[in-house]
Amino acid sequence: MAEKPSIAEMLRRTSDQLKRIRKHVANGGHVDQMQEVDALVGLAKEMADRQLAGLESPADETIALCKTVTMQRTERSTASS
Questions:
Q1: CA–CA dist 40, 35 (Å, integer)
Q2: What is 3-57 written as a DSSP string?
Q3: 2: DSSP letter
Q4: Rounded CA gap, 41 and 11, in Å?
Q5: How many CB atoms lie within 10 A of CB 67?
Q6: What tens-digit pLDDT sequence spans the chain (81 residues)?
Q7: Contact partners, residue 36, CB within 8 Å, separation at least 6
Q8: pTM above 0.70, yes or no
Q9: Sign of CA dihedral 58, 39, 52, 3
């Protein structure tokens, strides 16, 4: 049976995957959506950090994530108006 990768290795792999995703989004002509991709990646990182620290339950994280995404969308809509 294969050995489970360390957390550090999983984070390195995730970072590499995110770099490839960002490159594909940009190369696909969706540069205008990069801000939203970066915001979602930042939110995912924050959720992972909090869960690793044991500060909040997954349900609390979901509520916080929804509130943050809603606020960011409102800010973007206001800024583009």
A1: 9
A2: PPPPHHHHHHHHHHHHHHHHHHHHHTT-GGGHHHHHHHHHHHHHHHHHHHHT-S-
A3: P
A4: 13
A5: 10
A6: 678 888 788 888 988 898 898 888 888 888 888 888 888 888 888 888 887 777 655 566 667 777 777 777 777 766 665
A7: 76
A8: no
A9: positive
- What is the rounded CA–CA span in Å between residue 8 and residue 75? 34
- Say what the pLDDT of residue 77 is: 64
The SS3 call for residue 1 is coil
User: Please, what's the b/e burial string for 28-50 (b: 16 or more CB within 10 A of its CB; e: otherwise)?
Assistant: eeeeeeeeeeebeeebeeebeeb
Work out the angle at residue 55's Cα, subtended by the Cα atoms of residues 51 and 57, and round it to the nearest 5 degrees: 65
Amino acid at 11: L
- pLDDT, position 11: 82
